[in-house]
Structure formats: structure tokens, C-alpha cells
Design a protein that fits this description.
- The protein is α+β, with helices and mostly antiparallel strands.
- The protein has one domain.
- The chain is 22% helix and 30% strand.
- The protein contains 6 helices and 11 strands.
- The strands form 2 sheets. The chain has an 8-stranded antiparallel beta barrel.
- A hairpin with a 2-residue loop joins strand 5 and strand 6.
- The protein is globular and about 55 Å long.
Length: 218
């Protein structure tokens, strides 16, 4: 898989507002649940193009079966074999992600991590400061396709400020961006409470992507 991420920031590429980011994955191993319904070519409501593939299928296509894999490669395959390889394009920008599907009670989520970025056009010192964090989106499957809803940083910030949410976190950078530092188990438990909680603006409208298949009839 040689595709490269040619944009720096997930927030800049996908969103007009920022999403909740985490150091650790939002899923636990036991919560992983692969769904073939997400595989395909899609267009979202912001004219973004999504190419979602099975990570396992993509790996097998790109890997010579006669090649002896390193320990690290074997571990990577085992870790992501039930996930997706995603290419996202909008205008002249392109990004690639590894996405892991998982269940939070009866709700389907995906955990996304930037796969690779090309720093050829980026100041090398700046590139070394970049950290590939995790984000997570609720997946609402419909008859027409599916909708992705990312956790609103504004909503989570408000919960933390009002002391309605206690979760390990840090604020980093000049803009004091919120980054969750809790364990995957704690993050998964947080999502359970988040889904059943009743409060406004759980999902920022700017962070919602409605995906329809490219071969859908008008």
C-alpha cells in the first residue's frame, strides 16, 4: 500500500471544526466487528470521495505470498486484518487512513488513524512534530448508504469544563487542542455513556458526512 497522505491535518482536510482526538484507539480488541457494508466507492455531502477497502484484501493484493514477513509486519497484519484501508479525496488533496470498525453496545463506530503522509512539500522540522492520533465516528447505516458522525470537541470540552465528564486528557499546542490520554478501555466505556447521555450538540453539523454509493441512481 504505497498511497501517501499529502495533507497535514485531518481537521483541515475533512472538517471546518475540530474533532475529538486520542492517543490510544477508541476500541478494544473484543469490540472489533467488521462490516462489509462500508466497503465500496462513495461520495459524501461535501463532495468528498471515499474509497473504502478491506484491509485484509488490500494487504493480500500488495504482499507477495513468497515474501518472508518481518515480525513487525505480521503484528501489523494481525492488528488491522479486520479493518479498512480508506482513501479520501477532495479536490486536489488526498488522505489515507486505517479504520477499525467496532461496536459500542448496539452502535457501530469506526476508529480512524492517518496511515501515511508525504512530507516532501513540508518543512522537515514541522513534519517531525506531527502525531498520528486517533479519532472515532459513529456509523449510521441507512438504505441510501451511511452517515459518519464524529464526536464534537466543543461538546466534550463543555462536559469536561462543567465536570460532567472525568476522563484523562491534555491540552496541547498554541491553540490548546484537546487530546484524550485515557486507555482504550476507558475510551470505550466513555463512548457507552456518551451514546446514552441526553444533551444538545452531541454531533457538530460540520462534522457529519453522509455517504452515498457512486453508482447510486439520481
Amino acid at each position: 500500500m504505497k498511497t501517501r497522505l499529502v495533507v497535514v491535518s485531518l481537521c483541515v482536510l475533512l472538517f471546518s471544526s475540530c474533532i475529538v482526538k486520542s492517543i490510544q484507539p477508541f476500541y478494544t480488541k473484543s469490540s472489533i466487528n467488521y462490516s462489509g457494508k462500508l466497503v465500496g466507492n462513495w461520495t459524501d455531502n461535501k463532495n468528498g470521495q471515499w474509497d473504502i477497502r478491506s484491509f485484509k484484501d488490500e494487504w493480500e493484493k500488495e504482499t507477495d505470498p513468497n515474501t518472508t514477513l518481518s515480525k513487525e509486519s505480521k503484528e501489523a497484519f494481525e492488528r488491522f486484518k479486520d479493518g479498512y484501508y480508506i482513501k479520501y479525496k477532495k479536490k486536489d488533496t488526498e488522505a489515507s487512513f486505517i479504520a477499525m470498525p467496532f461496536m459500542v453496545d448496539e452502535h457501530l463506530f469506526i476508529d480512524l488513524t492517518p496511515f501515511e503522509y508525504d512530507s516532501d512539500d513540508l518543512n522537515k522540522l514541522v513534519a517531525q512534530h506531527l502525531l498520528k492520533t486517533h479519532s472515532t465516528a459513529f456509523v449510521d447505516i441507512t438504505n441510501e448508504g451511511f452517515t459518519l458522525k464524529w464526536l464534537s470537541e466543543k461538546a466534550v470540552n463543555k462536559l469536561i469544563t462543567e465536570k460532567r465528564l472525568r476522563i484523562k486528557h491534555e491540552r496541547t499546542g498554541i491553540d490548546e487542542d484537546l487530546v484524550l490520554t485515557a486507555t482504550s478501555e476507558e475510551l470505550h466505556n466513555f463512548l457507552k455513556k456518551f451514546m446514552v447521555s441526553d444533551f444538545e450538540d452531541k454531533w457538530d453539523n460540520d462534522d457529519i458526512r453522509r455517504l452515498k454509493p457512486n453508482n447510486a441512481k439520481p
